[in-house]
Write a structure and sequence with these properties.
Layout: H1 2-7, H2 15-25, E1 36-37, E2 43-44, H3 59-70, E3 78-79, H4 88-100, E4 106-109, H5 118-127, E5 133-136, H6 147-150, E6 161-163, E7 177-178, E8 180-183, H7 185-189, H8 194-209, H9 215-219, E9 222-228, H10 232-252, E10 263-267, H11 278-294, E11 298-300, H12 312-329, H13 342-364, H14 368-373, H15 376-393, H16 427-438, E12 443-447, H17 451-466, E13 472-474, H18 481-490, E14 495-499, H19 505-514, E15 522-525, H20 530-539, E16 543-545, H21 551-568
Parallel strand pairs: 3-11, 4-5, 5-6, 6-7, 8-9, 9-10, 10-11, 12-13, 12-14, 14-15, 15-16
Antiparallel strand pairs: 1-2
Helix pairs in contact: 3-10, 8-10, 8-13, 10-11, 10-13, 11-12, 16-21
């Protein structure tokens, strides 16, 4: 039997054959319906073969792959756990403990400065001689920078890491500490897509590189900082694309030697939510693995509760996300773990082309500063943010625990916060949860027919309202409108939604509105012909609840009517 299996061969199927078989399984739909479009205007295909890569053996494709692999100095990445201490003493305690448990760097965020004492700075200076240091967003008068003055000149050449901030000038001798940063995190949180992040990163580099007579001097001081979002494959391709773009950028300046630039990645806070915060841990794991597979050099994973206050447990979990990936997957032993995938290579190639063209467009308009001062970048980001929000509020994109599968059993404290992130997608939902958690209308789902018939719509409406913190109670299953009115008489509510099967809804609503008192606040689940909806509205129906509706607009409508009714009362 085994020998027979070994000798059995199968005819190789080509892409056309796959399309034919797939079309049959789609029951009338075409294979084209399986494609989706990304924010970068890149079409995601259902299947990738060598044809999608425009000839894998093509010289340009091979050069791209080589650039990805040569652009990384080391296979392993640095586990850079950020510390969230508020005092120098606590910072050193957390640092000591984290270094013993897998952290590999000193990470200091200058946007939340600490009042340092002399003794603490002396201890830090001794630590960074042997451990890489990443001091980010540091003001030039931050006392943390004095650690570089405290290290003896003969030991400065061994210090590794990076420092970013305005007008950062370190003492001499720190040839392995980079001080020029192209940081794309802010525009990322403002809504930027991968193409915009990559192109503006190059534009920032071009702005600074011109002030150096020797490009190699600039390159040896330069590093980039990316936020990694939940679009798993696109984020892998983003980091890989940067390697290719950097090589092309370097060659444009006449640099022939390979000069890898460190990529500092951190999990994005754009999709973090205060609602159901443990889902942030899943997002962080997804984003961290993307960064690693993409080939990041340094990685910070933010704790799942960073928005409301980091705890020792969340601090530990954030660190262990990286350690599990490093120890269990062994991807750090491979130079380019995502390489060779037709899908990833195709995404990388398209990102390179689009980002390079956009970079040239920025340069033609006078460079990065001119592009920003003209307002064009802000306009681009505003449109992108609006697009992301529209996708979210219409449920075309999911933010688990926020715009879908909201968990009303969790208490939500809207006053808790330790970090504010502009452009965070979950914020409008959090505001509704905070508002309705204090007090809310009594909501009844008026169900008609058999459970199997109305349950899909009743489940949908319950989940839909829950995203704003609204609790809906189901009525008994009514067989007639008369039964419904008898129940309503004994069970008053503020707001009701009629839920019936698609086949029965029109008849039910027509009968219901014939006797409906003007005092009743009633919506109907589903969408209907415009003429039908108008006749119901004219008869006193308030509105509708349906898939694809703007959730925030609907929740605002409910909030305003509830607040207005209470004022009238």
């Amino acid at each position: 039997m085994i020998e027979q299996m070994k000798s059995t061969s199968f005819k190789q199927a080509d892409y056309a054959t796959w399309q034919e078989v797939a079309a049959k399984s789609l029951r009338g739909r075409t294979v084209d319906t399986l494609t989706t479009m990304t924010e970068e205007n890149i079409e995601i295909q259902p299947l990738y073969t060598i044809e999608q890569l425009d000839n894998y053996s093509d010289e340009k494709v091979q050069q791209m792959i080589q650039a990805v692999r040569q652009g990384k100095a080391k296979d392993q990445w640095v586990v850079a756990q950020q510390l969230y201490a508020t005092t120098g003493e606590l910072f050193l305690e957390q640092l000591d403990d984290s270094l013993k448990r897998g952290n590999e760097a000193v990470v200091y965020d200058g946007s939340q400065p600490i009042a340092w004492e002399e003794e603490q700075l002396e201890k830090l200076a001794q630590i960074v001689i042997r451990i890489p240091v990443y001091a980010l967003n540091v003001a030039k008068d931050d006392l943390f920078l004095t650690i570089f003055e405290r290290i003896p000149e003969e030991k400065r050449s061994s210090v590794q890491g990076a420092v970013s901030g305005e007008s950062i000038v370190l003492p001499g001798g720190y040839r392995k500490v980079r001080t020029i940063c192209a940081d794309s995190r802010q525009i990322h949180h403002d809504g930027a897509d991968s193409v915009t992040e990559l192109a503006t990163t190059l534009a920032k580099a071009a702005e600074v590189a011109t002030s150096y007579e020797d490009f190699s001097t600039f390159a040896d001081k330069f590093f980039v900082r990316f936020s990694i979002d939940t679009h798993f494959f696109m984020e892998i391709a983003k980091i890989r694309a940067f390697r290719v773009l950097w090589q092309t950028f370097s060659e444009a300046y006449g640099e022939t030697k390979n000069r890898p630039v460190p990529v500092y990645s951190e999990t994005s806070l754009r999709s973090y939510s205060k609602l159901d915060p443990y889902v942030n841990l899943l997002r962080a794991g997804n984003e961290a693995l993307s960064a690693v597979l993409g080939g990041t050099d340094i990685l910070t994973v933010h704790p799942h509760d960073i928005l409301t206050g980091v705890t020792p447990n969340s601090f530990r979990l954030a660190r262990n996300v990286q350690l599990v990936i490093k120890e269990e997957t062994l991807v750090g032993e491979v130079t380019d773990p995502a390489g060779g995938s037709y899908f990833i290579e195709s995404l990388t190639k398209q990102l390179v082309e689009k980002a390079w063209n956009f970079f040239l467009e920025i340069e033609e308009k006078g460079g990065y500063k001119a592009y920003v001062s003209s307002g064009q970048l802000d306009n681009r980001l505003e449109k992108m943010h609006e697009y992301r929000m529209d996708q979210l509020v219409r449920n075309k994109k999911s933010l688990i625990g926020t715009n879908v599968y909201a968990n009303l059993t969790d208490e939500f404290d809207e006053t808790e916060k330790s970090m504010e992130v502009a452009g965070r997608l979950a914020k409008p939902y959090e505001e509704f949860r905070g508002y309705f958690q204090k007090e809310q209308p009594k909501i009844a789902l008026l169900t008609f027919g058999k459970l199997a018939d109305f349950k899909p719509r009743a489940d949908f409406v319950s989940g839909y309202l829950a995203t704003g913190g609204l609790q809906a109670e189901w009525s008994p299953a009514f067989s007639t409108v008369k039964e419904a009115y008898e129940w309503i008489e004994n069970n008053p509510f503020d707001y009701g939604v009629i839920c019936a099967s698609v086949a029965e809804t029109e008849q039910v609503v027509n009968e219901f509105v014939a006797e409906m008192p003007k005092s009743l606040w009633i919506d109907v689940a589903g969408t209907y012909a415009p003429s039908v909806e108008k006749s119901w509205i004219d008869a006193g129906v308030s509105g509708f609840v349906y898939k694809g509706q703007d959730q925030i607009a609907k929740l605002t409508e409910i909030k305003n009517k509830w607040r207005g009714d209470r004022r009238d009362a």
